[in-house]
């Protein structure tokens, strides 16, 4: 099934299991559908089975969202506590759509508990209380964590799965790998058809550790190996490390989940020469989650790192935000430089990334699908440098062979059935779903054939100014324009200098919380008699972010 077909099915409100091989665009579809729902004013709960995946999507873990936490069973008293929680009942009751990413790592019992909580809070016996459920993931990848030595069941093995009546959308296009030989090997592992000839191809990529290329990511199965390598490599670089601290705001429990899922550490130490990986997407700035580069310097004014990525371009890396959104509003946020040391990472943390090349050690793989996840991170066989492997590295879960054929067949049936429905009827179903959820119909402006109007080119500063005049916040402007907040503030500095933004508009953009602390920052500027951001940051012991200090400096321009 194509991405376009999957999107059209999702818009009808059907419960959907969105699956496909690594690199087929599952996360892209989730983001596209979530954007569509937001634009239509549909309340959407974006969750995942793991903190890392949830953080990538600006969501919560399904355990936190539903209130079940780490519980494997819910007593009557447990269920009563959950339903008496205002926070939990509000978010479950208000939601229209529930998205669960990385469904492969969600145990069947937990999947059933989420269904129970939703039914109880929403007062409906329908699966998940009548929510549209979008389960996303690939069951060939990392499975649920075994508990007490017992094998855990997949979510699809739960009775709730069958009752939910999923439409299976099995994506068949490939957007990561462009090497046919490598694709054949990955498909063989997936189909449990890995042969001696496939192994022979893999063995051509085996190297000794001493021969491994410099400054590309190494992937290991255990944290202890990763931490040791990153610490050792950083210590071996000359000079004193620059330290960047994470800032957080919002509910403590949400902040804790964000920190747990964020790939950037709370305390990030960098030196010139450090191998780093970007941990967030910003296509306009030239990087995505998984982009590798090297620190080549630090901006003298902001102290932010300058990273040279593999295509030779240099990027000054400003802080970015990870947020928890609930019913359309931000409940918690953390801010950090979107980097991590990347001489080494774990297989688990590599899930969802696309890498041009990587050094891998698969000699200690211990779980079905671990080797498959690691190998499928790289785009082509020539980008694989293998230190070794064990037999487990090429095994996927035995329960998945027959089930995968079932999923493929169900997807083909759904595709064929959908193709028979007239386009007008599909649009009507989509509009009916929006109306049932209290959403708004999004209309496209009619186009006039043969009429081409040349638009006047507007500068990037004027585009930001237009949004400021509309009353948008810095966060909203950054999101709408697809740029980081630091870039918006750069535009703001230019606009203030040109007297395009007045004092009252600037105060609105800064917000009441920061305005209360402006005097402290301004006093530091005057006391040190400097306009250097790093000096103020260090003087105030990192209490305020560089962006907040820049905004305070702008206020001083009106003194």
Automatic annotation (TrEMBL):
SUPFAM superfamilies given in the database record: P-loop containing nucleoside triphosphate hydrolases
Alphabetized SMART domains for the sequence: AAA
Pfam families for the chain: HTH_40, PIF1, Pif1_2B_dom
InterPro entries, per the entry: AAA+_ATPase (IPR003593), DNA_helicase_pif1-like_DEAD (IPR010285), Helicase_HTH (IPR029491), P-loop_NTPase (IPR027417), Pif1-like_2B_dom (IPR049163), PIF1_helicase (IPR051055)
Keyword Isomerase: yes
Record-annotated AAA+ ATPase domain positions: 12-230
Protein name: AAA family ATPase
BP-aspect Gene Ontology terms: DNA repair; telomere maintenance
Keyword Cell wall biogenesis/degradation found: no
Any one GO molecular function term: DNA helicase activity
Keyword set, alphabetical order: ATP-binding, DNA damage, DNA repair, DNA-binding, Helicase, Hydrolase, Isomerase, Nucleotide-binding
